[in-house]
Write a structure and sequence with these properties.
The complex is a heterotrimer of chains A (about 300), B (about 350) and C (about 270). Chain A has about 300 residues and is mainly alpha-helical. Chain A has 14 helices and no strands. The two termini of chain C are about 40 Å apart. The chains are: A mainly alpha (about 300), B alpha+beta (about 350), C mainly alpha (about 270). Chains A and C meet through helix 1, helix 2, helix 4, helix 6 and helix 7 of A and helix 1, helix 3, helix 4, helix 5 and helix 6 of C.
Chain lengths: ~300, ~350, ~270
């Protein structure tokens, strides 16, 4: 680094100003470059391909720009798929809330140690592969599976119930996968509710159910909203469980996309479906974030 | 011109020129220039937000100024990255590495300098010996008290024989007794090592104890630079006079013949040449509570309104003719018998050489 | 005892009995599928039974004895290990950069690194499949590792960011003042102190890759078929009890990783 010296031998102060500024921006660039390897990878694997597909979705089979891929999406069969997907997602989310809220509530009211111990029931499924859990449900619910065998042995039924390869099996399997996704963030946000408020409510003469309804419930809503948004959005795009437990009878969006590619080789349809899925996901997340002031969906694991 | 700082055996002259640092419209450092003599102990003294820590951080390389220059022995220093500056730094909260024990903390700066093995061990022992911490060399840092941690931090800062030592309010987290003890130790260490030291504090007594020179800093500027007694006895303005010592002020009128205090002539040490309105600097220890009735010069008439016993001294509140109230500390030299009573009129005298006037700005 | 108050609002245990029972049922619902496969995998007959009438290791032998299954396992393990290395390295660097950047830049970076979590997996899968087809990365380990690394990045970044949040960054300044360059300071002072978070992130990265199904279905194939892909095909087409043995092993792996993560978290909290 060369230095301009004035006649007293001391470097010119203003000249330093430029050098200092340059040093500062060099430092900032160096720090930013630390994120580059990861960011580049994300670009290559995520942004570029999906962007390309997005681009492609506006072109027809013969290469001319068209909206036919999107108009095709409005055909009855696709519409039915949308509706079916939303129905399943809604149903699964609802069940998860009904089952998960009480669990999160009880855990949040116990001591941290006890809750930590009991959490294993939630966390172990969470760490178990989706494939393994789906397979387990298959084994449990199939015609010759455990549940049917017990029911028959107990004399409650005479022929096996169709518990899987249909909507029922799919919903059961999906609820099993999604429950931890609801319980964990909800638990965290419930833990953060200061018990002082419930105490105050009791002091003011509220009955337990009043205190719960008027104090605790509203305060747990942001956490609940985060969980609900997460679960719903995950259900929309879910593939593995519906594919294995649905028996082809449950039309889910993700499967439609997959079929369009692996069976029909129809990239146009698949990309337009994919784009619509992405947009719907983004809208739902955004709406929830705004409505319920959810800060981040980060805290799951 | 070499910009890699070379290690020198002799302490070095530091020349700070025109350092400016602004955060938006806030001028943290406003065209600061300063020379530091080789081997001197210089204190940057000022209130919080005055810019003293910012200046230290500029020296250390943690804050990049907008413009200016710092040369050490003629070589430009400012563009060097912090780790090439060969400075020892002791921080306010010690910042010892918690995942290393004392020995490894102190040895840390030696490794990037290529020192290892037996040589490293010896130097670590020496440094720890200088701060009387050699017996705790293998302790983890979490097991140390505040004073001990600070000594380890000091050892770590001197083990590589830096050319300059920077200290950022290192004693402020210690209790009073320990702080005073450590001040003396620091002074002794400086006498022994002779390293140029730049010390930041807001405690004026600490500054007076430790420094060869004090730079009083306020509003991003150096308001006065001088030896401790210069700062104390010849403050350049009201701010400096107020910051050092337990100072009180009284407004003073000037007319053609000189200064007047409540209508009486005031014989001052220096002539008042400025057109600004002066203030009389009252240092309680310079007041005379006893004097001859006939001494009219530099006599202050007041009424005692409160007398509070404070163990080693009395705090006496007095009211001036114009209603201004001052609380003045007075030693116990006269026993309890000569203390004024509430409501009693009293007289105070200031000797001429202790009658100092200052303006708001210098 | 049931009439003792359970909470601040003086509701008794008895009144909340329904809650306890519901939660117990949900727990049973959650945990039974996870563990029931294990004893069933030791079934001695041709079909899976519970409880098994006879015990045998035949399905484990079928798994370990099959070259196909072994190859798939190896593919998955290799991909998971490579993913762990890359995701942990890139993610840790990114988290460090994010934590030191200015507000605007760091928000942007954070958003970019959270994207893989928010985009539907099926879309990532077909996107990759499409682009990889053009550049011949389908069916390769490289392609798989790239995709899995991207999936794992958000978890590593979150884990390391949380570790950095409770770390005193001042220490790097101190290290620099003592003569350490910034990279050296990072390696000798910061990294040792955030290593638990980094290891936590590495664990997530491993699990994310090893268990991943959807992307593997599309872009791993032929010789490079992952364990998950093979299992998926197997489950869909026939109920081969070998899958039960593999599932049991995977559950065991989950338990080990879960315990590991718990221990890491515990040591982190104790600091």
């Amino acid at each position: 680094m060369t230095m301009v010296l004035n006649h007293t031998g001391i470097a010119d102060a203003d000249h330093n100003a430029d050098a200092l500024k340059r040093q500062g921006s060099r430092e900032r660039r160096a720090l930013a470059s630390l994120t580059l390897p990861g960011a580049i990878l994300i670009f290559l694997v995520l942004i570029l391909p999906i962007g390309w597909l997005f681009w492609l979705s506006f072109f027809g089979a013969s290469g001319e720009p068209t909206l036919e891929n999107y108009t095709r999406v409005l055909k009855p069969i696709y519409v039915r798929t949308f509706i079916s997907t939303f129905e399943v997602a809604g149903l699964v989310t609802l069940i998860c809330v009904l089952l998960g809220y009480p669990v999160a509530y009880l855990l949040s009211q116990l001591s941290e140690r006890t809750a930590g111990l009991l959490m294993i029931f939630v966390v172990l499924p969470f760490w178990t592969s989706v494939l393994v859990r789906t397979y387990a449900w298959l084994v449990l619910l199939q015609r010759t599976g455990l549940v049917n065998t017990w029911l028959i042995d107990a004399g409650l039924i005479s022929t096996p119930l169709p518990l899987v390869h249909n909507m029922l099996g799919t919903v059961i399997g999906m609820v099993h996968v999604m429950l931890p996704f609801l319980i964990l963030p909800l638990y965290a946000s419930m833990r953060a509710i200061d018990p002082v408020y419930m105490r105050a409510a009791a002091n003011c003469g509220a009955t337990p159910s009043q205190a719960f309804r008027q104090v605790f419930l509203p305060m747990s809503l942001p956490g609940l909203a985060a969980g609900v948004a997460l679960v719903f959005v995950l259900c929309l795009g879910f593939f593995v469980t519906p594919a294995l437990l649905g028996g082809g009878r449950v039309a889910m969006w993700a499967m439609q996309i997959a079929n369009n590619i692996s069976v029909y080789g129809n990239w146009g349809a698949a990309s337009s479906l994919g784009v619509v899925l992405l947009v719907v996901t983004a809208i739902i997340l955004y709406v929830f974030k705004r409505l319920f002031r959810v800060d981040s969906f980060e805290g799951v694991r | 011109m070499p910009t890699v700082y070379k290690e020198a055996a002799m302490p070095d002259r530091v020349e700070i020129r025109n350092i400016k640092k602004a955060y938006g419209s806030f001028h943290a450092l406003d065209d600061v220039s300063l020379d530091i003599a080789p081997g001197e102990f210089l204190t940057l003294l000022g209130p919080s937000g005055s810019g003293k820590t910012t200046l230290l951080n500029v020296l250390a390389g943690f804050v990049r100024p907008d413009s200016g220059s710092i040369t050490i022995d003629g070589a430009e220093f400012l563009l060097l990255p912090p780790h090439k500056r060969n400075l020892g730094m002791v921080f306010q909260n010690y910042a010892l590495f918690p995942h290393m024990n004392v020995r490894r903390n102190v040895g840390y700066p030696l490794r990037p300098r290529g020192v290892s093995g037996a040589d490293l061990d010896r130097r670590v022992e020496e440094a720890l010996g200088l701060v009387q911490m050699a017996h705790l060399a293998d302790r983890g840092v979490n097991a140390l008290s505040g004073g001990q941690r600070q000594r380890v931090a000091l050892a770590r800062a001197i083990v590589f024989e830096p050319s300059i030592l920077l200290m950022d309010e290192p004693l402020s987290a210690l209790d009073k007794k320990l702080r005073e003890h450590m001040q003396l130790e620091l002074k002794r260490l400086h006498d022994r090592l002779g390293t140029t030291t730049v010390y930041v504090t807001h405690d004026q007594r600490e500054a007076l104890t430790l420094s060869d020179r004090i730079a009083v800093v306020n509003g991003g500027k150096i308001v006065q630079l001088g030896t401790p007694d210069e700062i104390y006895d010849r403050p350049k303005n009201k701010f400096v006079a107020d910051f050092i010592g337990e100072t009180r002020f009284l407004p003073v009128e000037t007319n053609a013949s000189g200064a007047l205090l409540y209508g009486r002539p005031l014989r001052t040490r220096d002539d008042w040449k400025s057109s600004d309105k002066p203030w009389l600097v009252i240092r309680p220890e310079r007041l005379r509570w006893k004097g001859d009735e006939t001494e009219t010069a530099n006599r202050i008439e007041a009424e005692a309104t409160d007398v509070i016993y404070q163990g080693d001294s009395y705090l006496i509140t007095v009211r001036m003719p114009d209603g201004i109230e001052l609380d003045l500390r007075r030693g116990p030299d006269l026993g309890g018998r000569d203390l004024p009573e509430r409501g009693q009129p009293i007289q105070l005298w200031l000797d001429r050489e202790h009658t100092i006037l200052v303006a708001d700005k210098s | 005892m049931l009439n003792r108050p359970a909470t601040e609002t003086q509701i008794t245990h008895f009144q909340r009995l329904w809650l306890y029972m519901l939660v117990a049922l949900v727990f049973a619902f959650l945990i039974i599928p996870c563990v029931i496969v294990i004893p069933m995998s030791f079934s001695g007959s041709k079909y899976l039974e519970f409880p098994p009438r006879s015990w045998s290791l035949q399905w484990y032998e079928a798994y370990l004895g099959s070259p196909e299954w072994r190859a798939a396992t190896f593919v998955s393990l290799r991909a998971a290990l490579l993913t762990t290395v890359f995701a942990t390295t890139f993610g840790t660097l990114a988290a460090y950069g994010i934590s030191r950047a200015y507000r605007a830049a760091s928000s942007l970076a954070r958003g970019v690194f959270m994207l893989p979590m928010l985009v539907p997996l099926i879309l990532v899968a077909i996107g990759c499949y499409f682009v990889y087809a053009k550049i011949g990365l389908n069916g390769t380990t490289t392609g798989l590792v790239m995709a899995h690394t991207v999936l794992a990045l958000p978890f590593v970044v979150i884990a390391v960011l949380s570790g950095l949040a409770s770390y005193d960054m001042n220490q790097e300044r101190v290290a620099q003042s003592l003569g350490a360059s910034l990279p050296w300071a990072f390696l000798t002072v910061t990294l040792p102190q955030i290593r638990l978070s980094v290891m936590s992130g590495a664990l997530f990265a491993f699990v994310t890759s090893f268990d991943e199904v959807v992307i593997a279905l599309f872009i791993s194939g032929g010789e490079n078929a992952t364990l998950t892909r093979l299992m998926f095909a197997n489950i869909r087409d026939q109920i081969d009890p070998t899958v039960a043995a593999i599932s049991s092993l995977l559950i065991g792996l989950s338990i080990i990783l879960l315990v590991g993560s718990h221990l890491l978290r515990g040591r982190e909290d104790r600091k």
